Amino acid sequence: MIDDRSRDYMNARRVAKEYEAVTRGLNRNMPSVPPTGIPDEVKQVDLWKKYIAWEKSNPLRTEDQTLITKRVMFAFEQCLLCLGHHPDIWYEAAQYLEQSSKLMSEKGDVNNAKVFSDEAASIYERAITTIMKKNMLLYFAYADFEESRMKFQKSHSIYQKLAAIEDIDPTLVYVQYMKFARRAEGIKSARTVFKKAREDSRTKYHVFIMAALMEYYCSKDKSVAFKIFELGLKKYGDIPDYILCYVDYLSHLNEDNNTRVLFERVLTSGNLPPEKSGEIWLKFQDFESTCGDLASILKVEKRRQQVFKEEFEEREATLLVDRYRYLDLYPCSPSELKALSYRDLSKKYAPIVPLPATTAPITSTTTENPKTEEESEQKAEYPKPDLSQMIPFKPRQFPPVGAHPVPGGVFPLPPAASQILTLLPPPICFQGPFVKVDDLIQRLGECQIPEVTIEEPTENGLNNEKDIAMETEGQKRKRDGAGDDSDEDDNIIQAPIHDIYRSRQQKRVK
Length: 510
What we know:
Elements: H1 2-22, H2 39-56, H3 65-82, H4 87-107, H5 110-129, H6 136-148, H7 152-163, H8 171-185, H9 187-199, H10 206-218, H11 222-235, H12 240-252, H13 256-268, H14 278-291, H15 294-307, H16 309-312, H17 317-324, H18 334-340, H19 364-368, H20 371-381, E1 404-406, E2 409-411, H21 415-423, H22 437-446, H23 465-481, H24 486-492, H25 500-509
Antiparallel strand pairs: 1-2
Helix pairs in contact: 2-3, 3-4, 4-5, 5-6, 6-7, 6-8, 7-8, 8-9, 8-10, 9-10, 10-11, 12-13, 13-14, 14-15
């Protein structure tokens, strides 16, 4: 008995030391706020996840799965008190309960398996009814969890609850809802969801694309998919992304005539503004270069040039680049494309000059690190400010004297000027007189300063003949004095009248 207790004591002592080391640095008093990404928050998230992973590793070395699950869920509950706005923590907690339920079911413990499964559902329910009630990720994970439990009606209610929230974009909700309805109940149920999505004024064009492609791939009915695309074109005919998806669908069906008709309808209907039609014209040109002849390619290029006169004015060579390019292959080098001011319209948010890796010469440097040249080009494309020269902004309601006030605060003085101000007396010590700067500047501007003529020196800084004569006479005297002996110089020098040294010598002799 003593040996057993001693063994338990040593085990508990070991776990206590490990627990103290793992939880060192955790801030349990940190308030639960939405993720900000600051370093302190990232550090706390890592510490909490390390603590949870330590609990999952079974530090007690016990075989009781129920005890392990309870300890891990206790760690999750503590973590949610500080990181309740992080959806990954909620999801990992529910996932662990789901895995524990499957493990208990494999061992034959049906009761505990059902308990853990219900607890996982309660975790999801608690998340979407409290601080994460607008997080789509947890709603979708909860719906999939209920779908795995064959509770389809519960999944329907989850999607409907999320779609009923007013201040969200329900487009993705209806897309995932249609996928679930097709998996669980077939294509007819998905059509019912699509009907609800069309009646919702907040949805976007993605719902029509999803419904059309689902009809084409699942029910194998091209006519239904074609009708859905046409229905969406009436509503979203001014959105290039929807038109491009429709074009891709028709081109994959090898219906060249219908594809040309669609291009002509879209580009000549007037619904699509010219500034949004750049990608459509480029797609039309690529289609003609693949399926048409040279005459049709030139015709499309001419029409495109007429639409974008200002952009292609004196830059007709960029049309040739679009004619001969293929995917990420370009007929010119990056420097030549930059000189042409070429813009790749096939890629959204692309720079003016694309940087194809295949166009650049293949060297040992590009083979080892193919992104080096591209990154250097992009860095050179967008210059960054010198942050070391920037002054920190410090908002202040009442700016001090001498500061630079701007809306919202002041910019502080440089450090050297601030040090000088600390040595000076405060502004309240100065009682006047106060100078009107505007009047002073005006007076200085009205003053007429007399002009003084300055004679320029002619030679060696001497202005006239008299100065030159005096200068030569002085030089002669110096030369004559330099020829006398040193004895004569001593005789010439006379002692001062009041010579203190000689008077003292005479007194000593007497």
